[in-house]
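User: I'm putting together notes for a lab meeting next week and I want to include a structural view of one of the chains we've been expressing. I don't have a solved structure, so I'd like a prediction I can at least talk through. The sequence is below, exactly as it appears in our construct file.
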Amino acid sequence: MAEGPLAVVDRLTEQRVTLRLKDARELEGRLLGADEHLNLVLDDAREIAPDASRRLGRVVVRGSNVVSLYAPEGLRAKPR
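Assistant: Thanks for the context. Below is the predicted structure for the 80-residue chain, given as structure tokens.
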């Protein structure tokens, strides 16, 4: 059976991820968690832009602003 989006995001917890937002910005950081609306909490976050980047620290990103989520390490195995 297919997993829902929240279950997939839960499997990415504690991993480095990159988010692309609706306004074309990208944020990179360690995913700490998510809620039922897919609002995401990133730690050690930084904003990545073509001309510069800046450190943001811990941020909460509203789920409706996220276009895509990339996890270079991939999904961890499902807990049994």
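A couple of points you could mention at the meeting. The chain has a mean pLDDT of 91. The helical segments are 5-11.

User: Perfect, that's what I needed.
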